[in-house]
Amino acid sequence: MVSPADGRIVHLGRVRRSRLEQVKGVTYSLESFLGPQDWRGDGGRGFSPQWRPGHRLYQCVIYLAPGDYHRFHSPTDWHIQHRRHFPGSLMSVSPSVVRWIPGLFCHNERVVLSGEWAHCFFSFTAVGATNVGSIRIYCDQDLRTNCARHVQGGYHDCSYTAWAGPAGVPAPKGAGLGEFNLGSTVVLLFQGPRHFGFRTSAGRRVRVGQALGSL
């Protein structure tokens, strides 16, 4: 797995008790960030992730400063099967602000791409920020972010399997996925084997294509 963007690692590690971390010690719930999910695959709302027994859930949060390269790329080989767009606020996602506002990523406008990689569930979330309401996903011409007609507090689902086939949209490692107008934040959330290990740490700068983790 490689970095999808130029930026700084804000947090990375295992997800415990269905709580995600914005920065160390500041958490928010998995469901409030992704919205309702049918984790059991029994016909619930939205995307239905398949859970592989014995695997763990991991996360990685990367902050893109306004001066950073503002496009983002696929961090691994996977297939995107679902898009969920959350209209919302556009508060700053600078680490100095994120440290003081619990659940900030759940309040801001964001686009959640969900699907599968070799180890089951994989998701890539682009979070909007101050002056960064426009989030573009290259394979999704219907997506419109930062629109006055969108009501905050809800979300809009789009199934990519409806037009791309059962596997979804292929996203090879390194391929361009989309872009922000300026810097913002990317959140990776994925299942992986117990022996998956990150190869960087919080606070470090990363570049597109730089190794994030491996088996």
UniProtKB/TrEMBL annotation:
One Gene Ontology cellular component annotation held by this UniProt entry:
mitochondrion
Cofactor(s) in the UniProt record: pyruvate
> Has keyword Lyase?
yes
Matching Pfam families, A to Z? PS_Dcarbxylase (PF02666)
The molecular function GO annotations come to:
phosphatidylserine decarboxylase activity
* Pathway membership, UniProt: Phospholipid metabolism; phosphatidylethanolamine biosynthesis; Lipid metabolism
EC number(s) per UniProt? 4.1.1.65
UniProt subcellular location: Lipid droplet
In Gene Ontology terms, what is a biological process of this protein?
A: phosphatidylethanolamine biosynthetic process
Mind telling me which InterPro entries this protein's record contains? PS_Dcarbxylase (IPR003817), PSD-B (IPR033177)
- Keyword line: Decarboxylase, Lipid biosynthesis, Lipid droplet, Lipid metabolism, Lyase, Phospholipid biosynthesis, Phospholipid metabolism, Pyruvate
Role according to the record: Catalyzes the formation of phosphatidylethanolamine (PtdEtn) from phosphatidylserine (PtdSer). Plays a central role in phospholipid metabolism and in the interorganelle trafficking of phosphatidylserine. May be involved in lipid droplet biogenesis at the endoplasmic reticulum membrane.
Annotated protein name in UniProt: phosphatidylserine decarboxylase
Q: Which organism is it from?
A: Pelodiscus sinensis
